[in-house]
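anyone seen this seq b4? input:
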Amino acid sequence: MRRIELSLAGIKVNFADREDALKRIEDWAGGGTYPVQVVYGPEGCGKTAWLRQSAELLRELGFDVIYINPVERGFVVDVGVEDIRRRLLELLREATDEAWVRAVWAVIDLARELIKVRRDKLAVLIDDAFQAIGLDKAAIYVKGLLGLIEYPPEHYERIIAVAATSEGISKREIGRHRWATLLTIWNMTKDGFKQLYEQLPGNKPDFDIIWRVTGGNPWVLSILLKNHWNVDDAITELIRSKGLGEAIQSLSKGDRELLARAVDDPDMLMSRDGIPLMNRLIELNLIVDNIYPRGKKLWIDEPPPERDTELGIGRFVAWQSPLHREAVKRVLEQVR
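predicted toks r here
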């Protein structure tokens, strides 16, 4: 399989790691998906890279492939019916946010048209689209994807329908229904992340230092690159981009005290008093909940360790990366 080229803070790198996640795609290619597969994980953990590499793998396996990412304005349209391909491309090439939202919804209709004509193998990969269409519409969209599988306009050979999200709110909304299987993807493994690190040119800090800051999250690595490996500047950027100063200042004194304890042990949030705060942190994309158990069936790739205090990983709850945790810790120190 050809490894695709990706951009990391403007530096060209090749796709690395995620062997188990790609093996899952091969398994789905052999029998299709039922129901829709919704993959959830920390922002910047590599979901987009995995889906784009999966699109390449599925094309090599003979699938028509539609991949769309309205957040990053990315798409792959490789289908065997020129009219449908042209119409979808025309939608996707429009620059406005409204055009991308229309394109996300149009994918379902055009996929149905493709099934009518081709009756072949089709993969529909939807990447971080729930934020674009509205988190309250995530479950409805997943139901639309399920309709491709359950109620196709014609008999088809095989369909793969996968949607990925970093929005914990949408994950919970989707989980209320029976329209999808929820799977979790974590940051890259240490060995896989080292493959990515070694592709970066020039002088750079020791790998173990970078690992302790990023926890294997490629997006956090890109923040460090943009800030010339200055961790303090990277923390400041994260604080400002997420509005953490205002968010933490708005908490009650009791919640700030609980948050301070959760910096050291995120499982502190798994309590009656902690769950409202945990939900707020999920909205801010700071933590990931419901990460237990670690059984392979529930994870799209290698799960995190059972517990890693250095990386901010508990048994039930984890900080999305060590940098997310450090950003919260710094703000707490400033507002006390």
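The mean pLDDT is 94. The first helix runs from residue 19 to 31. kinda curious what u guys think
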